[in-house]
Every structure is written in C-alpha cells, then in structure tokens.
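User: Sequence in, structure out. Go.
Assistant: Echoing your sequence, followed by the structure tokens.
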Amino acid sequence: MISVKPDPAHPRGGHAELSVPEDKLVGETAQVAVFDNYSERFLGESGWQPVKVMFGPYAVRREGGQAHLVIGPEIVNQIEEYANVKLMVGDAEQDVSWPDDVVPAPGAAKIGGIMGTKAAEVTAASALSAKMPEPEPEPAEVDPIPEPTPAPTAEPVETPAPKGKGGLIAGLVVVLLLAAALAYWLLATEDTPVTPVAEPVIAPAPVAEASDPCAADALRALEGFAAQSAALRGCAGTASADTALGLVERAAAAGDADALVLFGTVYDGEAMDAVIEDQIGLTFGDEPATAAEYYARAVAAGSTEASEKLAALCTRMADMTDTLVQGAVTDYCGN
C-alpha cells in the first residue's frame, strides 16, 4: 500500500519519496508518522518516544492513481537501513523494512537512529569453579602489659628488745628495706602514655562550576526555536556547526517556519546568513532545488519571508537547465 524509494531530486540522500494509493490521501498536503515495531516507540523531534508525533505537512503530487510526497532529513536521517517500521500517511498504514538505498544526507547529524534486529552471537558459558574465601589473617599477638607487681608485704620481724647500739642499727636496716620495696612498686605501676587521637579534618564543600550557556545541552533546554536561535547567534565563535545543525533539524522536523527558512538559506547560494554561515560554519553550498523545497515548506508553515526568498529563487532557477532545478521549478514555483 505504501512504498518507499529514493527521491530522484536528491541523489545525495537525506530524502525519500513515499507513494500511497490516491484515494487514501485527501488534500494538497499530508502528514507522516513513523512507528518502530521493535522498540514500540514513535519517531519525534528528539528521537524515539512513546508519544505519537506527526511530521509535515508535505506537498502531495498525484500521478497515475498514486499520491506521492517527499520527506526530508528530519525523518530519513534518523532511520537505519532494514529497520522494521510502520509508516502512517493520511489514512494509510504499512509495515515496511526501510530500504538500503534510502540513505541519510552526507555529514548530517543524527538525532538517534534505530537499528534492525540482528541475531546475537552466543558464546559458551565457562563453568564456574567454587572458591572458598581466603581466611582473614589473624591479628598479631600483642604482648600483654605486665600487671603491676604488688608491693611485698613485710612480715613482722620479731626484734628482741634493743640492747644498746646493735638494736638501733638493726632497726635502720629494716626501714631501708621497706623504703626500697616501696620505690620499686611505684616505678612498676607508672601509667602507660596514651597517644592522642587526631580529630578528623572536614574538607570544604566543592564549589559548583557555572554551566556553559553555549553548550549543546544548554541551548536545547531553551524553549522554542526563536530563543534557541537568538542564543546560538550570541554564541558565534563558540558554538559548533554540528550544534547549530542539531537545533535547526529538530525545529524543522517540528514544522517551525523560521527553522525551515534558515535551512533554505544555507542551501541558497544567493542568500546569506552571515552569523550562521560565516561565523558558525553551517552551510551546504548552492543547491537551488533543495533550497526551494525548504522555502516552500516554510511558506506552508506561514512564513512571509520565505515567500519573498522563494520568489527570488524561482526567478533565478527559470534560466537554469539542470533537471533537478527544473523539477523544483515545476513543483514549487507555480509553473
């Protein structure tokens, strides 16, 4: 019911042509949703998510009983070859295996693609051998602190009543012996010196570094492409072309008119955004057919600036003989 093939107007990739039976689409435009049958998620502006997101609107061309529409890098750059997805276009739904000849645009930044399922390589599990935990080493034996030797108890000595100087000398000897024993006991019972415990040092709390306002995450966190674009231009010389491309791709995928105009400008060799192209480096050279497509989508999203740029581009393309350019003149210039 729904077929997918490369868009001949974009041989470098990044675009695909969807064909649907004509009776399944009503009107001159249509929206497209993509569902990953493997992860059961929908494609959105920030990758795969549980909430359904409709891309577009895309211009519908009717021919030979079929309705044809061309989707751009906002979808093609996020899907890997052979991915099993469900395409939803108008009233039509179809499970398809994404063809390998529909490829992303060269150098395009992906938001996050999906992969087709592959058979996992299984390796034989090695047998586990039981291992007893090694015993913890026993603490080294510490020689016990000798207990103080109790002072010897002097047994009473029966001393005969002194008789003259001999009894006095014997009494002095007994007193000296008792004093020596007391001194020995006092030395043996001195307290062991105690090592003081050092108080823990509390390290100061780390000082949080200020976040970089020009980092990709900080720019993506801003609400709306208008705020992101203004901040991006203020980061000229710091922000990279990849960061700029990621912001513009997400906004263009959501149908933001300003983002679609900017995409057309970087493909239009006669238009120039000095900050984005010269200072940040996001440019793709002169591809009039691609620029016309983005201008036309911006016009459909309500941009008056895109109408003026598309009119000037159509005047320039009218004198060109390139097949792709003439196809764009037919599709987008009202001829």
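User: And one key feature?
Assistant: The chain is about 35% helix and 15% strand.
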